[in-house]
Each structure stands twice: as structure tokens, then as C-alpha cells.
């Protein structure tokens, strides 16, 4: 029972953080240029892309739409009011 409780807690905590961050208002959206360096597939239907930003930092972005490795893309750097930062592809 303790093992089951521990496993449940480790699965719920990241999901809870994601739900809380989705409810917090967005403070700013900044456009950023990036280059796709690689694709990493999950067990789910989404792909996770490894991208190098303008300052050579590496970030991972989830997306359903296929993209070419080596292509230049436009990202949006999203900052929420609590300071949480994430990246998404600009549509």
C-alpha cells in the first residue's frame, strides 16, 4: 500500500504543477528564432523537438506537427506571472 501511494504521489505532483501553471495568467510573450537539432518521440502521439536558441541554449518543445531537422523556426517564450517560463512554436 505504501509503494502504491508513493507511485501515485510521484505521478500526481508533476500533473498538479502543470494544472496550476495553466491557470496562472501570461505576463509576456517574446518571439525567438531557433534551429531544430533533433526529434525525440514519446509513447504518446506527440514529438518533442530539441532546439538551439539564438544564444545556443538547448530547449525541448512538444508539438504534434512534424518539422524538419535543421530548419529555422520561430518560437514564443512564454512567461507567466509566477515566473514560470516555457516555449512553444509560433503559429
Give an account of the 3D structure:
This protein is α+β, with helices and mostly antiparallel strands and 91 residues long. Helix content is 24%, strand content 47%. The chain has one helix and five strands, in the order αβββββ. Strands 3-2-1-4-5 form a five-stranded antiparallel sheet, with no helix packed on it. β1 and β2 form a beta hairpin. The protein is globular. It starts with a helix and ends with a strand. The mean pLDDT is 77.
Summed up, what is this model?
The chain has 91 residues and is an alpha+beta fold. It has 1 helix and 5 strands.
Estimate the global geometry from the Cα principal axes: globular
Kindly report how far apart the N and C termini lie: 46 Å
Task: Name the poorly predicted regions.
Answer: none
* Beta-strand fraction estimate: over 45%
- Total helical elements: 1
**Main beta sheet: strand number and arrangement?**
5 strands, antiparallel
Mean of residue pLDDT values? 77
Question: What sequence of helices (H) and strands (E) makes up the elements?
Answer: HEEEEE
Strand pairing plus helix content: what structural class?
alpha+beta
* Total E-strand runs: 5
User: Helical proportion?
Assistant: 10-25%
Record the strand order, biggest sheet: 3-2-1-4-5
- Radius of gyration over all CA atoms, rounded: 16 Å
